[in-house]
Amino acid sequence: MKNVLTIAGFDQTSGAGITQDLGIFFSLGLHGLSLPTCIVVQGPNGVKDVYPIPDRQFQAMATSLRGDVSINGVKIGAALDEPHVKILSNLLPDNRETPVVIDPIVAAKNGRRLITETGLKTLIASIFPKATVVTPNLDEASVILGKTVKTPEDMVACGKAILKAGPKAVVVKGGHLQGEPTDILFDGKETTVWKKKRIRREIHGTGCMFSSLLTAFLVHEYSIKEAFLAAERLTEDLIKESYRISEEGYFYASAGLLKSRLAAKWSVFRALKEAKERFCLLNLVECIPEVQMNIGYAVEAPNGTEDVAAFPGRIGRHEGKVYFKGEPDFGASSHVARLIVNLAKYHPSLRACANVRYDRAFLKRARDKGLHVVFFDRKQEPGRIKQTEGKSLDFLVDRVARSTENPPDIIYDEGDVGKEPIIRLFARDPLELINKMEMIAR
Questions:
Q1: Cα 358 from Cα 413, distance rounded (Å)
Q2: Which of 206, 268, 347, 435 is a Cys-bridge partner for 407, taking CB atoms 3.0 to 4.6 Å apart?
Q3: What DSSP state is assigned to residue 252?
């Protein structure tokens, strides 16, 4: 396992600094080490105060790291003051093959200063020459150069100027450019431009996010250009999935949450494919209703039907055999998806559902074998509910869930005008669903 060190401020809301960096390192298969320069009192509305780590304690932590573990990469964020920078200079690996990324943070998003003038000068003089990449935004680039950087042409000139201080490459981040946000990588030979669409939200910690992603890909032995492109792509994905932790204020992003969501979706796909194989092997054609069947399975805590995968085109029968018309996909069925999402509000462990042919023999076997069977009378639905597409399912599940304490295995109805009677079977996962289906059918 490779070790990557983040040297930055500590943000208790995990939006920036070492808490954000560590999440990114671990999500990309690296072990994260941390050395806090300061405690930053902040939240969704910005930085309120900054408390430096005393020099003696900072030196002790740095000495311990250098002596006890190998360091395969370093990312530096808020360095705060000259004594911290001098200690960092002695901590950095002597071998310039070890990636070092510097995000020269001058101030927080709300303007609170995070490095002194002497600290910044020392950073440029003693740390920039050891850097693989330096990643200033427009404001930071302007402070470093001593003149305003506000156009793509200024950014290229800025990259060339900073390169003279000794780093191998410079990324100037143009999130605050007029027009399209544009980032520029300059390595002394080639200029690489990355343009993106502007997202109208204030996101906390984007600079930390990008620089730690860049560090991680460099540690994984990407070239500087490929690491830049990979970090840009993943940063965009994270920004798209950003969220608030309070009603107002900055948005937050998490590589760990994004990766776990992707892993959860893969697990859902795999479970549905295994259930498909089992269902075909058992050939439970007697369970398929006239309107055909679908089997749905949701990720943990689904927020909406987009978090539920099912089989497109439904499941039917052909020449006496079960017939699937496609492979599972998210958003493939609104019917079972709505059932799962609504029931999960009350019983979050029940994440799988199938609509099964109505048969009184099925219901009798279910009761005999101890399944919790609940009847719903569709005649109780108010007219306004019946007339609104999709509302019947919401009403059905809500009414049943409120009236019974135990999780239902089956919710069934005996139909209504133009509505086929249906058994709705629920389970924790698709294989348990198929087992229950076999239990009631045979």
A1: 8
A2: 347
A3: B
Instruction: Give the strand pairing for 373-375 and 352-357.
Output: unpaired
Q: What is the tally of structural domains in the chain?
A: 2
> Do residues 293 and 314 lie in contact, with contact meaning Cβ atoms separated by under 8 Å?
yes
Given this model, what pLDDT does residue 357 score? 97
Token pair, residue 430, equals 């698709």
Query: Is residue 341 within 8 Å of residue 298, measured between CB atoms?
Result: yes
Q: How far out from the chain centre does Cα 305 lie?
A: 18
d(C-alpha 20, C-alpha 12), whole Å: 10
Domain that holds residue 327: 260-441
The answer to whether residues 309 and 166 belong to one domain is: no
Q: What is the pLDDT of residue 4?
A: 97
Count Cα neighbours of 234 within 13 Å in the Cβ-side half-sphere. 27
Q: What CATH number is attached to the domain comprising 288? A: 3.40.225.10
Average pLDDT for runs of 10 along the chain of length 442: 96 94 96 95 89 94 86 94 90 88 87 85 94 95 90 89 95 85 92 88 91 97 97 94 91 92 94 97 96 96 94 94 95 92 94 97 97 86 63 78 89 83 96 97 91
Return d(Cα 35, Cα 62) in angstroms, integer.
Answer: 7
The pLDDT of residue 152 is 86
* Closest to 215 (Cα-Cα) out of 60, 20, 84: 20
Helix ranges (H only) for 74-222 are 82-91, 117-122, 138-145, 152-163, 206-219
* Separation CA 314–CA 333 (nearest Å): 8
* Contact between 338 and 412 (Cβ < 8 Å): no
Domain of 64: which CATH number?
A: 3.40.1190.20
Q: Which residues, including other chains, have CB under 8 Å from residue 360's CB and lie 6 or more apart?
A: none
Type of residue found at 329: D
Supply the DSSP symbol for 62. Answer: H
Going by C-alpha positions, the residue among 49, 21, 46 that lies closest to residue 35 is 21
Closest CA to 128 of 166, 164, 99: 166
Q: E strand or H helix at 23, and its extent?
A: helix 17-27
pLDDT value, residue 384: 67
* Residues forming a β-bridge with 352: 297, 427
The helix (H) or strand (E) run that includes residue 427 is strand 422-427
Residue 226: what pLDDT? 97
**Do 343 and 428 have their domain in common?**
yes
Predicted local confidence at residue 383, as pLDDT: 63
